[in-house]
TrEMBL record:
Gene3D superfamilies: Zinc finger, CHC2-type domain. GO terms for molecular function: DNA binding; DNA-directed RNA polymerase activity; zinc ion binding. Residues 3-54 form the Zinc finger CHC2-type domain. It comes from Ferrovum myxofaciens. This is Zinc finger CHC2-type domain-containing protein. It comes from the Bacteria. InterPro entries: DNA_primase_Znf_CHC2, Znf_CHC2. One of its GO terms (biological process) is DNA replication.
Amino acid sequence: MTVVELLERLQGVRKTDHGWTAKCPSHNDNSPSLSVTEKDGKILLHCFAGCGAHEIVTAVGLELSDLFPEKLEFSKGRTPRFPAHEVLMGLSDEIDIASLLITRWFDPSKIWDLDHYDRLLLSNARIQSGVVMIGGHRHE
C-alpha cells in the first residue's frame, strides 16, 4: 500500500511540512488529530487523541502490515522484534497518558469514571506489549 492509497481512505487530509494531517477514523474527530508520515517506505501514524495504530488501520479496513512495504514474517512461536527507538517513541505517549490518568485519580477535585479506568488499562497493555516487542518479558 502507498501513502496516497491510505490518504484516500481518510477525511480532512491536509499536507504539512512533515507529511499530512487528517481526521482520525477510529474516534469522533472534529478537527484533524491524525499525523501521517512516510519514512523509509513505511507509513507512520500518530493520533494525538491517543488512538493506537491498530485501531486506526482497522477503522479504514486495513491491517498493520499494510503500512509496511513488505509483510513482516517471523518464526513460529517467536515474538517479533522491532527497533527499540521506534517502540520507545510510541511507549512515551502511553506513559504520558498513564501518568496523567494516575494524577487525576489521586486529585480529589477531579471526577474518575469507568472510561478513565479503561484507558489506564489500555495504556498498561500497550506498555507491556511494547516491552515484549523490544525483547523484554511481560509481567503478569
